[in-house]
């Protein structure tokens, strides 16, 4: 179960509800409700299946054009 890290949203999603993909900054899913980026980390279970763990910290993209 994942929880949207957008505090004003906070919706909960099962793995089957979200689309996990890579936008260049690591694996994430977009909250289907508010569109917030929620980063996840793939983990292998003992059974050899891949599960995803939600990462709490925000990976900020450095502002471009700033020197
Ligand atoms: Zn959300």
Describe the protein.
This protein has 67 residues and is mostly beta strands. It has one domain. It is 0% helix and 36% strand. It has no helices and six strands. A four-stranded antiparallel beta sheet has the order 3-4-5-6, with no helix packed on it. The model has no long low-confidence stretch (mean pLDDT 88). Zinc ion binds next to loops. Zinc ion (ZN) binds next to loops.
Arrangement of strands in the largest sheet: 3-4-5-6
Can you give the helix content as a percent range? Answer: under 10%
Number of extended strands: 6
- What small ligands are held by the chains? zinc ion
Considering the chains and any ligands shown, give keywords for the structure:
two-stranded antiparallel sheet; 0% helix; four-stranded antiparallel beta sheet; 6 strands; mainly beta; single chain; 67 residues; binds zinc ion
Q: Nutshell version of this structure?
A:
The chain is mostly beta strands and 67 residues long.
Secondary structure layout plus pairing:
Blueprint: E1 2-3, E2 12-13, E3 20-22, E4 27-30, E5 37-44, E6 50-54
Bound molecules: zinc ion.
């Amino acid at each position: 179960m994942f929880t949207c890290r957008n505090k004003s949203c906070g919706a909960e999603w099962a793995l089957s509800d979200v689309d996990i993909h890579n936008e260049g900054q690591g694996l994430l899913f977009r909250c289907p409700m508010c569109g917030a980026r929620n980063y996840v980390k793939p983990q292998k279970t003992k059974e050899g299946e891949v599960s995803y763990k939600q990462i709490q910290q925000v990976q900020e993209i450095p502002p471009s054009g700033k020197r």
